[in-house]
Amino acid sequence: MSAVEDRASWPGTVECFGGRQVHWVHQPGDPPAVVLLGGCGVPSYAWDSVVLRLTSRELARLDRPGLGGTPWPGTLPQLADEVATLADLIARLGRPAIVVGHSMGGLHAEALARQHPASVAGLVLVDGSVETDPKPPGSGAGWLATARAVHSLFAVPPLRPLGPLADRLITAAQSRRRVFAPMPQVAKRAYRSRDAVASVVAEQAAYAAQVWDLAAVRSTYPWPGIPVVVLTAAGGGGAEGVRDQARLAELLGGSQVVAEDSQHLIMIDRPDLVVEAIQTVSREAS
Fold this sequence. Notes:
The chain has 286 residues and is an alpha/beta fold. It has one domain (3-285): Alpha/Beta hydrolase fold, catalytic domain (Rossmann fold), CATH 3.40.50. Helix content is 45%, strand content 18%. The chain contains 11 helices and 8 strands. It has helices at 3-6, 48-51, 79-93, 105-115, 141-153, 162-173, 185-190, 194-220, 234-251, 266-269, 271-285; strands at residues 13-17, 20-27, 30-37, 57-63, 97-102, 120-126, 228-233, 255-259. Strands 1-2-4-3-5-6-7-8 form an 8-stranded mixed beta sheet. Strand 5 (97-102), helix 4 (105-115) and strand 6 (120-126) form a beta-alpha-beta unit. The longest helix has 27 residues, at 194-220. It is globular and about 50 Å long. It starts with a helix and ends with a helix.
């Protein structure tokens, strides 16, 4: 299944932000707007339970290239690409937004806040990625070749069901949702697309480089002092992960909330905590 064939099954629109074709879902409502960013390979519908609790708020949910019926561009994404896309999207909204970044999306959210402080009213980091000692990344050539090979392999129809199955297994491993729990139709189709599967490989491959690039951003751009809440899954990285995220909250001058009964996908396990964090940041930003 190609990206174009899959596009009709996704709500929302595909537009160019920051020079890239991305899928996004916009909900008009009260300010400040909230921008929801998934982690590596986490699609916009993962935020459904959060969105249902924010019916009056302006919301924007983003799928990076490869998801949401957009083509995978055949490259490894870079932190600068993600920042440019987010800055352009928030400019479209017309006012500073609260940016909610899950996992690797937290890297993008922090870099955006540092480089475009006028665009960001506050941050909520949902079990955001933390690397205390980033290492210089390699060229990524091997990973890129792997992503391209996956893109070619998943053009073969009998292999396409493997994508949704892998998604079910990974979601179950990173949340309290069971493997065969009911899923919306869009979730059943999302990873039948070879663009989606290749994009997940490419994003995972780009992680080390994005961590390294964020370290450079931190050394160049000061923290703007905006409100921050760091949500931490106690069932994600264990006690060490909780400590690492506490240090992140301290670095950003924010507060930490530990979700004792949640795995990594806090927006699925504890959407109420995500909403509370958004409301806290919104009050502090006003």
